[in-house]
Each structure stands twice: as structure tokens, then as C-alpha cells.
Amino acid sequence: MSDEIKSPFFSVCIPTYNTAKYIGEAIQSVLNQTFTDYEIVISDNYSSDNTKEVVDLFGSDKIVYFQNSENIGLYPNMSLAVKRARGKYIQVLCADDKLSPYCLEVIYQQLEARGFSHGAVGIGYSRNEDDLQTEPLSDAFDYKVCTVGIYNFFDYLNQKIDTNLGGFLGTICAKKDVLSEIGYFGNNSKSLDADVITWKKIVLATDCILIDKPILCYYRQHTEQISNTAELKTTIVEYFDFFNEYKNTLYPLDIDGRKTKKFLDYRISSYIIHGISIAFKQKKFSFLFENLKLTRKYGYKIPIIVILKRYSIKFLIKFLSFIDTRFG
I need a surface site. Which of 11, 27, 229, 230 has the fewest CB within 10 A? Predict the structure, then answer.
């Protein structure tokens, strides 16, 4: 029997580091899948807790566990997990998140309906576990699905910027061949936005399906997650490097550069507003100054008007919320 026949359709890749507290729920959410042609590839980034013991308790032959000899960083570890996977499509799952039991079934059905011509799928997520689809889906279910590719790249970029469908790790499902073509998730162990950048590269490399409804991923928020504990939070450079790397590809889609500027203005203003927030709350100015420095280094004008507009709206929302709580 050939390797191709023996290989599962999906490989659910779970990168982990000291997540013994949560990884059991993540694994169980995969084992609960209604679509059963999958393997679970766990790449343990040299955890010092009892992650391995939690994994071993399942005793499932669907689980393939690897432990690195040292901590190589989140995205190099994610890339390694994908390289070790045997499936045709890679569904990524963070070790502290959960999938709907219908996740792989819905993805497979949507791919099958389009003749498996799409190289990636972005799924909808929620920070509220109660939103996760746990009830059977009827034939009449009102799916919210669209497609995105290079032909509407900037429309997607500037309209879906807040929903981030396909943006972070847990929402990405892509052909292994496509991930290999774009260089997986990169080798920058200090990066915090490599998953978002990877998705943008995927959209440029293949046509993608976006499934916004039903909610197929629960994105858990907690104080120990890497986005809260990582030392390096400055990621503006990731976006400048991306647009420089794909300049020849993007230029025909955005000849005057306005669409690129619109996206960068929004994204950079987000980081600067975040830096202002940290400066006020924690008396730490390094993040803010580093972002301003990097923006100027790349010759990009700081979007003052966008920052003022967004910060004013953010402040107004908080003020109205306070009034409602205090006097409502």
C-alpha cells in the first residue's frame, strides 16, 4: 500500500510548550470530530511541565507526539510540526484552543463542493466558548461562506481586517504543498505575527474559502498565552518586510499604492495605540518608541490622523461604557 493511500486527509498540528493545563481539551476536541480521516501531530517545544503525560493518557493511535531537544520558538516549531505531518491538508490548532466537533467535516464538505480546487480554508472563531458549533448541522443550515484569492486580495485585506478570518494559527487550514511553497511559518523564533503574514502569503498563492459561520474554533484567552508573555511585541517590521517581499506581485493589484497604504495605516496605528495604552497602564514606553522608530526607519509616515481618529473612537466607546455601567 502506498504512503499516499495510507496518509490521512487532515493532519491537525498542535504546537505546544508548557500547556499541560489546556492541551487535553484541545486533543479531545479533535478526537470528537465527526470526520475521522485525520491524524494529530503534536510538536512539543521542550516543555518542562507534564505535557507529555497528559498526551500519553489518551493512548490514541491517531496521535503522533514529538518532543524537541530544545525550545526553538513558536513558529519554527509550528513549521516543524507541518513538515512532520502526513496529511494532504493541515489544520492548525493552538494547544489552548478547541475545535467544534464538526470542524473537519464542514471544511471537507466545502472543499468537496468546489472540487477540491481551493488550497486553503479560513474558519470563523470566537473568544466565547458558547459560540462554538456543538449541535448537528442540518441540510438547511445557513452557512456564511465566501472566497478570497489574489484577484480580491486588497478588498479582503481592507474589509476583513478586524475579523481576521484565517489570520491566527487556529483558523488556518491549508494544503501541505501550499505551506511548503511559501516557506511554512518562517524561522523567526521571536515573531508574533508570522501566522497572520503566512495567511496573507497563502491568499496570494492559492484560492481560499472563508467560513465565517458556523463558528468552528474557540480561541481561549488567558494570562499565560504567548501573546501576553512574549518579550518581543514589536511586529511592524513583519508587515514592511511582507510588502517588500511581494512588491512585484502586489504592484499590478495596487499601482498607486493606496490600498497598501490603507492597510498599513490601519495596522501600524493599531500597534501605536497599543503602545500608548501600555505606556499609560504600565509606565512602559519601550514598545511605543520602538514602533515609532521602526516606522520612521522604513521611511513610512506615521498615520497621525488615523491614530487620532481611532483613539478618539476607542476612548468614546470606553467612556460610554463607563457611563452605562455607572449610571445605567
Answer: 229
- How far apart are alpha carbons 182 and 90 in whole angstroms? 14
Q: Map residue 147 onto helix, strand or coil.
A: strand
Minimal CA–CA distance to 107: which of 181, 30, 46? 30
Apex 256 CA angle, 252 and 262, nearest 5: 105
b/e sequence 22-56, b meaning 16+ C-beta within 10 Å: bbbbbbebbeebebeebbbbbbbbebeeebbebbe
**N-term to C-term CA, the chain:** 68
What's the Cα-to-Cα distance from 236 to each of 6, 143, 248, 312, 315, rounded to whole Å?
42, 35, 21, 22, 23
3-state helix, strand, coil in the chain (%, to 5): 50, 15, 35
What the block records as the C-alpha cell of 251 is 504592484
Burial class (CB in 10 A: 0-12, 13-18, 19+), 150: middle
Torsion angle, alpha carbons of 130, 134, 139, 141, to 10? 10
CA nearest to 145, candidates 165, 174, 117, 159: 165
Q: What angle do CA 145, 147, 150 make, to 5 degrees?
A: 160
Kindly report the pTM of this predicted structure.
0.90
- Quote the cell numbers at residue 297: 526607519
pLDDT digits (tens, 9 = 90+) for 39-82: 999 999 999 999 999 999 999 999 999 999 999 999 999 999 99
291-309 tens-digit pLDDT: 899 999 999 999 999 999 8
User: Which of 43, 55, 41 shows the shortest CA–CA distance to 17?
Assistant: 43
- Here the cell at position 73 is 520558538
* Amino acid occupying residue 66: F
175 three-state secondary structure: strand
